């Protein structure tokens, strides 16, 4: 908090200097509370310009702020320049009030952002779906490696999270063991390939999220790290999980639709005197229940229900 106050303090002091340098002629004393409001608004305008890298060389940045409160540049200059002549009036008190307002607003916005993040996470988790799960895949023979190729069809856009743990037995003499994970689009092209090098002599973990849109056909987990003619394999994968998190807009739409009767929900957005709904009836609505998903024939397992 002290660091924030120092940061705000330096910004406000710099802002005061800029205001003094930009001021000119007329004379009117601005009350302390209104002066604090002017400094507050000018600070926010300056912060926006710096953050967005706006070119303000030819823009009157502070003039409209002064005019909002009914004052001119000259009034601001005169008020700041004559603080020392006013009994019991300190410019430092005005600056401190500006800092308090900025800190208070910063705290409020942080709370609002946290609430929005929490709401997004709740919606995200509500419409998540486990597409694949296997508690243990053991590889002791070359024929076992057929269980290590998993291809999952992609039905909806969103984030697809792949995670698993693995361990390689000390008797496994194969080298350069790597797994591959990638997307396949509708033209059969391989996209977003991730290669993971497996670590020996310790229990390893992998986790990665793939962003999927409507152009993607499937997600592939190629957990087979062995060459065509490997030495006897000795390893295992456990807690292999693929979770789909819906696209945020689609998840929010599904939540809204789940709270309304499907027969009248589109009617709420139908313009008066027209026959066209503003909400497409063809938008997919996702059930919270876990639907079954067919797995490839060589997986040897079944999807969760």
Q: What is the topology?
A:
Blueprint: H1 2-22, H2 32-52, H3 63-68, H4 73-81, H5 91-126, E1 128-139, E2 149-153, E3 158-168, E4 178-185, E5 190-197, E6 204-212, E7 216-222, E8 235-246, H6 248-258
Antiparallel strand pairs: 1-8, 2-7, 3-6, 3-8, 4-5, 4-7
Report on this model:
This protein folds into 2 domains: 2-123, no CATH class; 127-253 and 289-299, Jelly Rolls. Mean pLDDT is 76; it is low at 261-305. The chain is an alpha+beta fold and 305 residues long. The chain has helices spanning 2-22, 32-52, 63-68, 73-81, 91-126, 248-258, and strands at 128-139, 149-153, 158-168, 178-185, 190-197, 204-212, 216-222, 235-246. Strand 4 and strand 5 (190-197) form a beta hairpin. The chain contains 6 helices and 8 strands. Helix content is 34%, strand content 24%. The longest helix has 36 residues, at 91-126. The strands form 2 sheets. The protein has a 4-stranded antiparallel β-sheet. A 4-stranded antiparallel β-sheet has the order 2-7-4-5, with no helix packed on it. The protein is elongated and about 90 Å long.
């Amino acid at each position: 908090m002290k660091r924030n106050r120092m940061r705000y303090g330096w910004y406000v002091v710099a802002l005061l200097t800029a205001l003094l340098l930009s001021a000119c002629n007329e004379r009117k004393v601005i009350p302390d509370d209104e002066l604090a409001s002017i400094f507050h608004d000018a600070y926010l305008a300056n912060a926006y310009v710096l953050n967005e890298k706006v070119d303000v060389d030819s823009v009157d940045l502070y003039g409209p702020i002064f005019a909002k409160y009914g004052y001119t540049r000259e009034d601001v200059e005169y008020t700041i320049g004559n603080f020392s002549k006013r009994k019991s009036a300190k410019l430092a008190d005005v600056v401190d009030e500006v800092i308090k307002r900025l800190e208070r607003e910063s705290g409020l916005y942080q709370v609002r952002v946290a609430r929005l993040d929490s709401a997004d996470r709740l919606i995200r988790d509500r419409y998540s779906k486990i597409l694949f799960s296997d508690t243990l895949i053991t590889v002791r023979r070359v024929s076992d490696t057929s269980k290590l190729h998993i291809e999952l069809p992609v039905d909806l856009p969103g984030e697809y999270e792949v995670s698993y743990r693995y361990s390689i037995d000390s008797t496994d003499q194969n080298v350069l063991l790597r797994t591959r994970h990638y997307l396949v689009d509708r033209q059969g092209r391989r996209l977003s390939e991730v290669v993971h090098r497996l670590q020996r002599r310790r229990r390893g973990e992998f986790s990665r999220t793939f962003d999927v849109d409507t152009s993607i056909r499937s997600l592939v987990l190629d957990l087979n790290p062995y060459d065509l003619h490997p030495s006897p394999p000795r390893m295992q994968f456990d807690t292999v999980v693929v979770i789909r998190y819906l696209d945020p807009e689609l998840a929010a739409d599904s939540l809204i639709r789940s709270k309304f009767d499907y027969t009248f929900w589109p009617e709420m957005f139908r313009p008066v005197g027209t026959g066209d709904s503003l909400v497409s009836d063809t938008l997919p609505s996702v059930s919270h229940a876990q639907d079954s998903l067919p797995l490839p024939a060589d997986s040897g397992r079944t999807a969760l229900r």
